Amino acid sequence: MAEIKVIQKRDNSTEITISGELTIYCAMEAFQQHFQQLKVKEKTLFKLGNISEIDTAGVQLLVMLMKIVSEQSSSYRVVSLGEALTDYSNLFQLNRYFVDFADISALTSGSEEDKS
Amino acid sequence: MSLDAVLQTFYIEAQEHLESMENMLLKMDEGECDDEMLNDIFRSAHTIKGSAGIFGLDHIVNFTHVVENVLDRARDNEIDIDKNLIDVIFKCRDHMQSLVAVSLDEYNAQTDLQKTDSDLLAALAPWTSTENKQTVAQNNTPAESQLDNKLTNEGDNENLWHISLRLSTDCLRNGMDPLSFIKFLSSLGEIKHIETIIDNFPQVDNFDAESLYFAYEIALQSDASLEEIENTFMFVQDDSDITILPPTAKIDDYLLLIDKLPEENQRLGDILVNCGSLTRHSLEQALIAQSTVITATGEQTVTPKLGELLTEQNKVSESIVSAALTKQKQNKSQVSEGKQIRIDSNRLDHLINLIGELVINQQRIELLSKGVKKPQLTEAVDDFENFTNQIRDAALSLRMVAIGGTFQRFKRLVRDTAQELGKEVELTIDGADTELDRLMVEKLGDPLTHIVRNAMDHGLESIEDRQAAGKNTKGQLKLAAYHEGGHIVIAISDDGNGINKERIREKAIEKGIINTDSKLSDNELFHLIFHPGFSTAAEVTNLSGRGVGMDVVKRNVEALQGSIDISSQAGKGSEFKIRLPLTLAIIDGFHVEAKGTHFIIPQATIIECINLANHQDIKGRHCINLRGEMIPYLNMSEIFKLTPSREQTLADNIIQHSPKRELVIVQFGSDVAGIAVDTLNGEIQTVVKPLGPIFKALKGIGGSSLLGNGEIAFILDVPQLIELAIANEIASKVSRAESMNGQ
């Protein structure tokens, strides 16, 4: 079961952290609870490094999430992909969606949480 | 289709492939080795591995991968197929069957299966390449390891297939992840490119996290056949749009594909170029030509479809476009309709039971309509009966299966048993197309196995003995099936030693089954082998000779309303004939009455009906002379100790005479006897219902049926009654002879 945290930060950014198993078994619940009504700030950061297992339903959910974020005119970045997502992304050649920006310091330095 | 249903299909398909493998291996074992057989075996192993991979059944994938590699080396003539290799492949096939029967968790818990795994892989070692050994040792999923390498490889564009997948939106929900297909495709060759298309994603409010929105365009470099690639998607064909373009596909095939797909043409074209399936130049030419066409008068027309455009440009003939489109339609209809469907046998049994009820109700309506005497109603009831009969026959035919499948399994049994016994045996199969009720076919397996094993163990001689007897060293065993007088006969014959009558007699006396002075016919003597605990074998082998089995054989066959005859000639061989009814569910019967009790005689056994009053009993015995033939008969009221019901007695008193006596002459095999009853009521469709345990001990009754008027009728077990009539006749002859001697 995936653990999802959406943190709105004071620097006008949103940080979305997903860890654990993101599969069809939890995709529906994850979407309805966390993403269907999601509001993001100007910048969005995805932390996906701790996804231990992912299947096609999980990847679709991430693509949908990025679509939601884009539609709110938020610029997004993926920081840390994790092995499971990297493997999937390589296999299906989805790297254009899941680019791992390793150096996130510029984006995250000085940021503080305002709510979680 | 749910995941369980898909898995069930996998098990059925795997079973079919394993059977096919076995048949091919048997042929190869007999010396009939050709490339096509080897290809068939390889394809079976390959498909099982691939399908297992789709379901994540890694224990099957890992083991089968090694077997497949050995087979592939044999296909490439890198190794020779000899008797030893065939033996090992046989064992591997059996092990694959065991692996298919268990889940991955069960496999992990069963050390014996894992041990067989390693034993067989060690046995295959002389034929495996170093590469294969490494794959197994690392215990990688082969598909995955191949995939990792192949996606990073760059090669030429020969044998480049293009696969376009618009899978059913229910795909994920049904437990099928495209990940599995891609992994399997990678085992067929090298995936050069995958384009995952996300154009079909809905708006957020309409997003269903369990639906599949991804579409895929895949370039696969592979030597595989179209069938092999198509089989990858066999579990998701329904509601999916799958196009596979072979390496030989022309530009117009691709353009037709672009035209067909829902995405925008230019974008699809780019995807195909990215895949390496099309060149940029050829795509641009066609797409430019396809863009808005301006007529000579300057009026803008509707953008033509690519196929139409290509035809106009004379790049491809109209017939080719139309043929391609027709083929597309055909492919779609084949996928959606299919020529065969699989049905759960329980559903079929339920249908037959319902039809049984329909038949009973139809008879009830017929009976009621006789009281009304309205010609229009009679006509409608006749039509109803006609259609009911047709429905009955059609439904019963659904449950009929050819016996060939069962016979085929004996090839392997015969091969292995012959090897074990050190004998040479050739199995011949005749009448494999003969159809029998599925329920019977299932229950015939064990009896046939016992008879075949006995024939090989005790009937057929050793090579030395056959040489000494001047016979061909290869013993002949024949399994045959054919129709005979409304029954199916299954004959198992051999050209061995024949049954030793003297040994049977000695053994029967020794076991106290018969007395020293018992006079038995050959048939009776042979039937002693069905006595529980009877065995003439001097030596007990692990195949037969324990006396357990032949009595079970007889019981099983009788439970199917059948009988067994044995014929044997010393030194020439034996034949076991199993006679079975065509079906057990609904039969054509003949309704008779004795002392107010209703009986049904299976119509297939009836020769004729005569009036018993016109024939005299021979010397006080229940036996008549019918056109020179002595026919023993049984009186139903005596046999079943029937007493007339109160209504019957009253009716008899009113009529003032006893009912006339009728004799129904019945036949089973070569035996004929008569059944004496009071009234003949005529033909009737009979729904066979099993008897309750209270009637089990009652000889001569095989089942029961409900009549249209709600009364119960007993279905007579004709073989048992004939046996009884003949036994009674012999007994009365003997007692008469003894009393004459006494005088």
Automatic annotation (TrEMBL), chain A:
Coiled coil: none
Residue intervals of the STAS domain: 7-98
Superkingdom of origin: Bacteria
Pfam family, any one: STAS
InterPro entries tied to this protein: STAS_dom, STAS_dom_sf
Name recorded for this polypeptide: Sulfate transporter/antisigma-factor antagonist STAS
UniProtKB/TrEMBL annotation, chain B:
Signal peptide location: none
First-tier enzyme category under EC: transferase
Gene3D superfamilies recorded: Histidine kinase CheA-like, homodimeric domain, Histidine kinase-like ATPase, C-terminal domain, HPT domain, SH3 Domains
Enzyme Commission code: 2.7.13.3
Histidine kinase domain sequence ranges: 376-584
Recorded catalytic activity of this chain's protein: ATP + protein L-histidine = ADP + protein N-phospho-L-histidine
GO molecular function: ATP binding; phosphorelay sensor kinase activity
One Gene Ontology CC term in the entry: cytoplasm
Keywords: ATP-binding, Chemotaxis, Kinase, Nucleotide-binding, Phosphoprotein, Transferase, Two-component regulatory system
A Pfam cross-reference name: HATPase_c
Residues covered by region (Disordered): 132-152
Phosphohistidine, modified sites: 46
CheW-like domain: residues covered: 586-727
Transmembrane regions: none
Top-level taxon in the UniProt lineage: Bacteria
Role of this protein: Involved in the transmission of sensory signals from the chemoreceptors to the flagellar motors. CheA is autophosphorylated; it can transfer its phosphate group to either CheB or CheY.
Organism listed in the record: Colwellia psychrerythraea (Vibrio psychroerythus)
Protein's name according to its UniProt entry: Chemotaxis protein CheA
Stretches assigned to the HPt domain: 1-103
GO biological process: chemotaxis
